[in-house]
């Protein structure tokens, strides 16, 4: 454990007044404004010793061989060491001063733009030219912020340093603090003759066209990053990035689930029973849909590779066609006679009620189809 008495150069039976006098003497001698920033560790040791030995409760704990907590440990709040740390940072330029003048040139902000895509555009990818209202570099001053032929003048208050130093009184005596120059806002220079085109900003707002290459497989909410296509920063600073967020329009026929597409086709019961070949309009044009004999209501027929393109790889999802078998509601005499004859041939004039086993209903079959079970 650090010998705080030795740090302050006092005896163990020194009075509180003797400890304070020793501390004031050493603090003035070793303060970074006097001894330099490289002496900061010694200054902190002196502050820590005074913080403990000047507090009767902490001194008693220290004398008993216990390491007292910081000022905040006992609920006392902001301690002496915190104050000294603040002074040290101010002296070293930690508050923004002492680091040289600030730069007017800063990076521009990122921008977000939304575009709407048709389902087919999301499936196959597309290139689009979009109009963006953004900040671009001023062509009159080329980002200098000054009227052509002029330049910023050195601040007369801080003489180009961007910061000023002031002497302040404290219980330590005179303490030097550093802060940004209010006259030039810390830049070290003042633009006395700003560019009339951009009003001294170094950039102007305008509309420009940007090409966006949308890859196949993007989904609703996908963001595409266009590096360096955002706003130009103040004083001609580097541009930020442009993010383009995709909004996918609802399709009147197809529903998207991941990279798969789903649709529904109506089929007469005779076609479902006998089987048929349908022509189906897909995103790839007309394709043949083979309906096998005995196709059941809500059965799903899958067309491989006619869905959405995979975003980060080759191939595409599938198109799932849900078959909806329609039953006629009105029959003429000949149609009714034929159906009765068919029922007789199949022994179905008076069918018995047969309960299907659990898990064999429409929704179960749909779930099995979707999950490949």
Description:
A hairpin with a 2-residue loop joins strand 4 and strand 5. The protein has 3 domains: 89 residues, Helix Hairpins; 153 residues, Urease metallochaperone UreE, N-terminal domain (HSP40/DNAj peptide-binding domain, Sandwich); 117 residues, Urease metallochaperone UreE, N-terminal domain (HSP40/DNAj peptide-binding domain, Sandwich), CATH 2.60.260.20. The chain contains 10 helices and 15 strands. With 373 residues, the chain is α+β, with helices and mostly antiparallel strands. 24% of the residues are buried. Helix 2 runs antiparallel to helix 4. It has a 4-stranded mixed beta sheet with strand order 10-11-15-14. About 8% of the residues have low confidence.
Q: Which SSEs are present, and which pair or pack?
A:
Layout: H1 4-8, H2 16-30, H3 32-35, H4 40-53, H5 56-63, H6 80-92, E1 111-117, H7 119-124, E2 126-137, E3 153-154, E4 163-170, E5 173-180, E6 189-190, E7 203-214, E8 223-226, E9 242-248, E10 255-257, E11 260-268, H8 269-274, E12 276-282, E13 285-291, E14 300-303, E15 319-326, H9 333-345, H10 362-371
Parallel strand pairs: 1-9, 11-15
Antiparallel strand pairs: 2-7, 3-6, 4-5, 8-9, 10-11, 12-13, 14-15
Helix pairs in contact: 2-4, 4-6
């Amino acid at each position: 454990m650090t010998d705080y008495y030795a740090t302050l150069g006092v005896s163990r039976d020194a009075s509180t007044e003797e400890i304070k006098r020793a501390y004031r003497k050493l603090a003035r001698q070793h303060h970074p404004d006097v001894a330099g920033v490289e002496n900061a560790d010694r200054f902190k040791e002196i502050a820590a010793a005074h913080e403990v030995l000047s507090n009767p409760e902490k001194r008693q704990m220290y004398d008993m061989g216990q390491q007292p907590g910081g000022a905040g440990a006992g609920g006392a709040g902001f301690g002496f060491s915190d104050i000294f740390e603040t002074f040290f940072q101010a002296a070293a330029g930690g508050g923004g001063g002492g680091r040289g003048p600030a730069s007017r040139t800063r990076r521009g902000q990122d921008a977000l733009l939304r575009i709407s895509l048709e389902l087919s555009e999301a499936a196959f990818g597309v290139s689009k030219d979009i109009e963006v209202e953004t900040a671009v570099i001023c062509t009159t001053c080329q980002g200098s912020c000054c009227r052509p032929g002029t330049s910023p003048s050195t601040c007369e208050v801080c003489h180009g340093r961007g910061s000023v130093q002031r002497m302040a009184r404290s219980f330590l005596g005179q303490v030097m603090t550093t802060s940004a120059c209010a006259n030039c806002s810390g830049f070290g220079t003042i633009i006395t003759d700003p560019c009339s085109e951009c009003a001294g900003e170094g950039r102007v707002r305008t509309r420009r066209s940007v090409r966006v290459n949308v890859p196949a497989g993007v989904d609703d909410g996908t963001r595409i990053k266009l590096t360096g296509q955002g706003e130009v920063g103040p004083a001609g600073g580097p541009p930020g990035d442009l993010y383009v967020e995709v909004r996918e329009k609802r399709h009147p026929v197809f529903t998207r689930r991941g990279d798969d597409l789903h649709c529904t086709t109506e089929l007469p019961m005779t076609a479902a029973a006998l089987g048929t070949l349908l022509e189906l309009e897909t995103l790839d044009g007309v394709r043949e849909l083979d309906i096998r004999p005995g196709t059941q209501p809500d059965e799903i027929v899958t067309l491989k590779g006619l869905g959405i393109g995979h975003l980060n790889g080759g191939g595409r999802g599938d198109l799932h066609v849900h078959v909806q078998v329609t039953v006629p509601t009105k029959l003429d005499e000949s149609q009714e006679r034929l159906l009765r004859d068919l029922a007789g041939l199949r022994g179905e004039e008076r069918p018995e009620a047969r309960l299907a086993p659990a898990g064999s209903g429409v929704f179960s079959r749909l779930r099995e189809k979707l999950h490949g079970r």
